[in-house]
Amino acid sequence: MNMKPLKGQHHVSAITANAKENYRFYTKVLGLRLVKKTVNQDDTSVYHLFYADERGNPGTDLTFFEIPQAGKTYPGTNSISETSLRVPNDRALQFWKKRFEEMNVEHEEISQETGRASLSFRDFEGQRLVLVSDEQNTGVEGGKPWDKSPVPVENGIVGLGPVTLTVNRVSLTAKILRDVLGFREKGTYKNKQQKEVRVFETGEGGTGAEVHLIEEKDLPRERPGRGSVHHVAFRVEDVEELNKWVDVLNQAGLPNSGFVERYYFRSLYFREPNGILFELATDGPGFEGDESFENLGEKLALPPYFENQRSEIEARLKPLDTKE
Fold first, then answer.
1. C-alpha to C-alpha distance for 209 and 181, rounded to whole angstroms
2. Quick one: CA torsion of 304, 159, 53, 246, rounded to 10 degrees?
3. What are the tens digits of pLDDT across the range 274-288?
4. CB 3.0 to 4.6 Å from 274: which of 167, 239, 292, 298, for a disulfide?
5. What is the mean pLDDT of residues 1-18?
6. 9-316 CATH, one of 3.30.420.40, 3.10.180.10, 3.30.540.10, 3.40.50.720
């Protein structure tokens, strides 16, 4: 089958227990734009918030499901254990370190383990995050920070960087990445804990198209809650390509969702053998089908197939002011 390679990260979806504080942190502290305030299409009683660059270009979205009763996360294996966000250059990391100090954001020192300057930090629920410099990036281009952000554009976050997976049996996930999804193994490095990290890349490669893989045989399985990651999605050009991927997964004997309509993009879900949820998602149509560029994220947006349930859906949601 004539397949185009996956283009890199599409989005990462995580869990928060507090949409209001989540909105404050990701827009006011990190300076991302809320490009869509909608609901989890599999459970319309909870918010699904999309933070991204100025218009939610694919590869820039960090999204959150609000689950108010979500408990504490107990970190462990078979998890998406770190999400990184790209900034333009090394100098920007100095800006962010100072900003985190001033705003009392938990963070570490700037480091170089991955071969790129990076700055690990956590949000108010312990979400494991790292800023990574694009200074040496020659692969997938980043997005464009919103010019109305509280963070100056020259230091703004331009998209998702490498996603780190911690798994019990590394060979099984590596085989899926390489033999099914078409990633290339690029090399290894030692992380802060001196664990070997295997680096896989796809498409044009670079900061926005890498998966970092760590084996932890002795850790218990992660118990997810607030501050954990639900799934990672990788970019597919269009619906035609997505349908080919359905065939690829079926031929590989991987149980999967088949084609799923998400309105803002089209999707396909499956779990790799260690149990991590992967999604393949199309680059379009994007977020401006139901809101103008100027007003993205201001109102509760519902795909057309939920519009007739709007009054019931809104009645179940706690109001969230996203115009301030």
1. 12
2. -20
3. 999 999 999 999 999
4. 167
5. 95
6. 3.10.180.10
